[in-house]
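Design request, tokens follow.
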């Protein structure tokens, strides 16, 4: 590397898209040039998880060690959690970065597909519920309208029967009995209408 490149690495800004520069010393210590302190692999992993861009360089040779350090972080995390299958790890060794990139792309594509399927299912379910709600509302209106017409018709027939009964009944007790029956029928009909309205 030229002296200009060395100076650029040492004084790289961290704002915008520029990565934070971390120097790796021969004793394997890692030094954060922005915060002026030593950091661990775990802290670098946390920086990356938080969305920071980092660049690790050898302090003496200025060689870029970012890939090697990130692989070491993955190794350390895998020792703790064992999230990857042996097949995946073997494929990584056999095919190197290609396999890792393909794995990430496949996983992203699968997740995008699942998210899209869930979104479409939710939209379809909402449309079904809206349609059912509209159909239920229309049906309820039809039932209320039909019930009102039935009540009006029943009232007319009832009025006719009352007139006929009054004319045909010779005694007051017969009239009271028929009025009581009619009243009971009216109560039953009103109850049915209230139940339909709910």
């Amino acid at each position: 590397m030229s002296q200009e490149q060395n100076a650029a690495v040492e004084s790289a800004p961290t704002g915008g898209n520029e990565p934070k520069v971390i120097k790796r010393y021969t004793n394997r210590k890692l030094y954060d040039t922005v915060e002026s302190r030593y950091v661990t692999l775990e802290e670098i992993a946390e920086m990356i998880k938080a969305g920071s861009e980092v660049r690790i360089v050898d302090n003496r040779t200025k060689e870029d060690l970012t890939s090697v350090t990130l692989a070491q972080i993955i190794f350390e995390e895998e020792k703790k959690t064992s999230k990857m299958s042996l097949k995946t790890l073997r494929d990584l060794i056999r095919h190197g970065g290609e396999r890792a990139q393909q794995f990430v792309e496949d996983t992203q594509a699968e997740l995008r597909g699942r998210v899209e399927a869930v979104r479409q299912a939710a939209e379809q379910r909402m449309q079904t519920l809206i349609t059912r709600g509209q159909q239920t509302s229309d049906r309820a209106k039809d039932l209320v309208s039909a019930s009102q017409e039935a009540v009006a018709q029943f009232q007319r027939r009832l009025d006719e029967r009352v007139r006929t009964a009054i004319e045909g009944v010779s005694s007051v007790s017969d009239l009271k009995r028929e009025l009581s029956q009619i009243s009971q029928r009216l109560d039953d009909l009103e109850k049915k209408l209230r139940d339909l309205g709910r």
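Comment from the thread starter after seeing the answer: thanks! Residues 76 and 104 are 19 Å apart (CA to CA).
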